[in-house]
Design goal:
Blueprint: E1 14-18, H1 25-36, E2 40-42, H2 44-56, H3 67-77, E3 80-85, E4 88-93, E5 96-97, H4 105-114, H5 118-135, E6 137-140, H6 144-148, E7 154-159, H7 162-173, H8 181-197, E8 210-213, H9 219-236
Parallel strand pairs: 1-6, 1-7, 2-6, 7-8
Antiparallel strand pairs: 3-4, 4-5
Length: 238
C-alpha cells in the first residue's frame, strides 16, 4: 500500500472489525492500528461506559418498564467520549477516565443489555460514525461492519471456538477473585445470546466481510493476514 492512512474511497482509511466477545478483536485491532499508524477505536467501550453509568445509577438487569428510557436519558445528562491516539485509547465519562472500571464482567453484561436499546444504539452509532469520518482508523465492536461502517475499506469478522474464547477471557481477568472458567463460559454464552438475538442490529456476518477464525492463531499472524487483505483491496480497488 502506498499510503495506509488513505483509501480510494473519500476520507481517511477505515478498517471495521466485528465479532463476538473474546475473539481477539481488541488485541488485533490495536496491533493493526499501530502497524498502519492510524487511531485505534474501540466502539464497544462506548456501550461499556453507558453500562457502567447505568450500574452507577442503580439500574440492574432484567430491565423494568422504564429502565430503557432511564438508560437513554443518561446520554443527555452525561458525556461519553473516546480519545484515540495511535494504538492507545482513553474512555472518558464527564471528563473522567474510566478505562479500567468498564472492563469488569458485570459491566460487560450490562453493556450487552444496553446495546439492545434502540435509542442508545442510534445515539452511539451516530457518534461512532462522526468519530470515524473525522479521524479514520481501525474501528472494532459489534455491528461496525454492518451498521456503523458498511462501506469501510476493509470489513472483518473475527471469531474463535467457544472454548478458546472462554479461556482467553478467563486469562484476561486474571485476578484471584475472578469468576471460574465455567462461570466465564456461562456469561459468554448469555452474552452471545443477547448479541445475536437482539432486535436492534444483531451480531451477524454480513455479505462481503472477511471471516477469520483466530483459534490457535497468534495475534501477529492475524495482523499479517489483515495487512495482506488491505494490500489486496488497495490493488483491486474492491
Amino acid at each position: 500500500m502506498s499510503d495506509p492512512t488513505t483509501s480510494d474511497r473519500e476520507g481517511p482509511l477505515i478498517v471495521a472489525i466485528d465479532g463476538p466477545a473474546a475473539a481477539g478483536k481488541s488485541t488485533i485491532a490495536a496491533m493493526l492500528a499501530g502497524r498502519l499508524g492510524v487511531p485505534y477505536l474501540d466502539t464497544g467501550a462506548m456501550y461499556r461506559a453507558v453500562g457502567w453509568l447505568a450500574l452507577q445509577e442503580g439500574i440492574r438487569q432484567p430491565f423494568g418498564a422504564d429502565d430503557g428510557e432511564r438508560v437513554a436519558a443518561l446520554l443527555d445528562s452525561h458525556q461519553v467520549r473516546l480519545e484515540p491516539g495511535g494504538n492507545a485509547l482513553r474512555v472518558l465519562v464527564d471528563g473522567r477516565e474510566v478505562g479500567e472500571e468498564i472492563r469488569t464482567p458485570e459491566v460487560a453484561m450490562m453493556a450487552s443489555a444496553v446495546s439492545a436499546l434502540p435509542a442508545v444504539r442510534r445515539r452511539l452509532v451516530a457518534a461512532q460514525r462522526e468519530l470515524g469520518l473525522r479521524s479514520g482508523g481501525v474501528m472494532e465492536g459489534r455491528d461496525i461492519t454492518t451498521v456503523v461502517f458498511p462501506d469501510a475499506a476493509l470489513r472483518v469478522f473475527l471469531t474463535a471456538s467457544p472454548e478458546e474464547r472462554a479461556r482467553r477471557r478467563h486469562q484476561d481477568l486474571g485476578a484471584p477473585d475472578a469468576p471460574s472458567l465455567d462461570e466465564v463460559r456461562r456469561q459468554q454464552q448469555q452474552r452471545d445470546r443477547q448479541d445475536t438475538t437482539r432486535a436492534e442490529s444483531p451480531l451477524h456476518v454480513a455479505k462481503g466481510v472477511v471471516v477469520i477464525d483466530t483459534t490457535g492463531q497468534s495475534p501477529e499472524a492475524v495482523v499479517r493476514r489483515l495487512l495482506d487483505e488491505l494490500d489486496r483491496v488497495s490493488a483491486t480497488g474492491a
